[in-house]
């Protein structure tokens, strides 16, 4: 991860977004009395098919997709009227406001029993930044890491946190005196997190079995099995303009971009021997790509104009060499900012950029590219802006998809098109659940700046 570059900030300006640490908390609409959270956190809350979200004042809550069974997990030190500011170089600036504590960037464990999140506590003499792991039912938490120094890994993100797809291991990126570092915590209470890599920019993906990682650090691509300890590692240099390499669901193959005949090519290599790569597609620069959960194809977005923050082509590329399906391409189509596979791989959701309206729109299509549906126009919260800006990393850790692939969750404010079709809406960032079939109107769950669905 790295700080949002000038092109991303320019896009934020064109959409009317301020990409700061947190969204506008003052004046945000509050929950209706029927939606007020249960703060008795000792009660049991079912963790399956739950949405975790961050309130405008920095508390973590979980809720059912229908808005019921709302539970507040944090709030010992209340953040009152404002959030702390972040300096342009990633340092936390303690302000004289009454803010004491806030949580951000929650992410679910694979089994839904735990959440991990960044916690920031503003004290008179220092700012404390930690990674917390908490019980998703009770909110009881453990500190698994404390920063040596205040710092961010991306605008508004004290850490990037990513659970292993199976097991209890937790990985996270943190700013350290040595620079950007990747840590792995084994999952046992009292264990210390171990640094496994450093350098920047740094992007990575866990293998589905949790036994390996693919890392992209600077120009180096690394296959580490296992990720920590005395790992067996393969590595090579790539000059491809991309962020995150992608691992096939069975862990047998790795896809990445490298230079090819004066341009860029998408390559697939067996993880048993990365030197045996084959090129499957010529791509523009930059590009982003993710393997489908069923392993049959790779979604690829690329850009014909180098350095642009968004993509002008979105494709589905079968790994068996079958014809490519183009979902969006050319000037007649809106640009693509981000995309996310559904859990079963039968659908792809993407975020289109409507520069005329200065807003974004969720679009969903089946994995064969047919019958694309436009679901919801919106302005993202500052947190969602960062998530979309680095979507090919956050897709592995912060899912907008429901476990059954029937819904999406998003935080932000309704765009003009949504306002015209749905009437008056509360001000400020809200959490919305979208029906991907378009059969029902977006469901407003309440005020929130970031929302993440559980994996199960």
Q: How would you characterize the overall build of this protein?
A:
With 456 residues, the chain is mainly β. The chain has a single domain (6-453), classed as YVTN repeat-like/Quinoprotein amine dehydrogenase (Methylamine Dehydrogenase, Chain H). It has helices spanning 6-14, 382-389, 391-394, 416-422, and strands at residues 51-54, 60-63, 71-72, 85-86, 92-93, 101-108, 114-122, 127-135, 141-146, 159-163, 170-176, 179-185, 194-198, 202-206, 213-217, 220-225, 232-237, 246-247, 253-260, 263-270, 278-283, 287-291, 297-302, 313-318, 325-329, 335-341, 347-354, 359-366, 373-380, 407-414, 430-435, 443-447, 450-453. Strands 26-27-28-29-30-31-32 form a 7-stranded antiparallel β-sheet. The longest helix is centred in the first third of the chain and has 9 residues, at 6-14. The protein is globular, with a radius of gyration of 21 Å. The model is unreliable at 18-36, 39-47 and 77-98 (pLDDT under 50).
In short, what is this structure?
The chain is mainly beta and 456 residues long. The protein has four helices and 33 strands.
How is this fold's topology laid out?
Elements: H1 6-14, E1 51-54, E2 60-63, E3 71-72, E4 85-86, E5 92-93, E6 101-108, E7 114-122, E8 127-135, E9 141-146, E10 159-163, E11 170-176, E12 179-185, E13 194-198, E14 202-206, E15 213-217, E16 220-225, E17 232-237, E18 246-247, E19 253-260, E20 263-270, E21 278-283, E22 287-291, E23 297-302, E24 313-318, E25 325-329, E26 335-341, E27 347-354, E28 359-366, E29 373-380, H2 382-389, H3 391-394, E30 407-414, H4 416-422, E31 430-435, E32 443-447, E33 450-453
């Amino acid at each position: 991860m790295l700080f949002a570059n000038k092109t991303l900030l320019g896009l934020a300006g064109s959409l009317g977004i301020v990409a700061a640490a947190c969204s506008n908390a003052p004046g945000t609409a509050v929950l209706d009395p029927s939606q007020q959270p249960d703060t008795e956190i000792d009660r049991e809350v079912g963790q399956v098919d739950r949405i975790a979200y961050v309130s405008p004042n920095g508390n973590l809550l979980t809720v059912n997709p229908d808005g019921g069974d709302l539970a507040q997990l944090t709030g010992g030190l209340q953040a009152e009227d404002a959030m702390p500011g972040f300096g342009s170089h990633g340092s936390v600036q303690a302000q004289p406001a009454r803010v004491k504590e806030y949580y951000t960037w929650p992410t679910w464990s694979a089994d839904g029993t735990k959440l991990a999140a960044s916690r920031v506590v503003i004290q008179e003499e220092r700012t404390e930044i930690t990674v917390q792991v908490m019980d998703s039912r009770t909110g009881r938490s453990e500190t698994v890491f404390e920063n040596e120094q205040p710092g961010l890994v991306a605008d508004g993100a004290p850490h990037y946190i990513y659970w292993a797809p199976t097991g209890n291991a937790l990985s996270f990126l943190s700013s350290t005196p040595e620079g950007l570092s990747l840590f792995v915590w084994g999952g046992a209470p009292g264990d210390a997190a171990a640094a496994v890599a450093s350098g920047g920019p740094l992007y990575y993906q866990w293998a589905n079995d949790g036994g390996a990682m693919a890392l992209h650090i600077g120009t180096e691509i690394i296959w580490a099995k296992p990720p920590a300890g005395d790992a067996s590692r393969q590595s090579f240099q790539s000059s491809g303009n991309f962020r995150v390499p992608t691992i096939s669901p069975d862990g047998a193959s790795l896809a990445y971009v490298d230079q090819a005949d004066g341009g860029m090519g998408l390559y697939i290599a067996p993880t048993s021997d990365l030197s045996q790569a084959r090129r499957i597609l010529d791509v523009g620069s930059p590009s982003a790509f993710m393997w489908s959960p069923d392993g049959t194809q790779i979604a690829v977005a690329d850009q014909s104009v180098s350095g642009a923050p968004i993509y002008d082509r979105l494709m589905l590329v079968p790994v068996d060499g079958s014809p490519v399906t183009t979902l969006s391409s050319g000037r007649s189509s809106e640009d693509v900012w981000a995309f996310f596979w559904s859990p079963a791989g039968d659908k792809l959701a993407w975020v289109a950029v409507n520069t005329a309206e200065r807003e974004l729109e969720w679009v969903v299509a089946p994995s064969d590219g047919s019958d694309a549906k436009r679901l919801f126009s919106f302005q993202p919260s500052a947190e969602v802006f960062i998530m979309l800006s680095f979507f090919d990393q956050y897709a592995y850790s912060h899912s907008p998809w429901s476990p059954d692939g029937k819904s999406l969750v998003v935080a932000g404010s309704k765009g003009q098109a949504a306002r015209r079709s749905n009437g008056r809406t509360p001000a400020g960032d809200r959490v919305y659940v979208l029906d991907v079939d378009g059969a029902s109107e977006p469901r407003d769950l309440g005020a929130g700046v970031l929302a993440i669905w559980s994996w199960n």
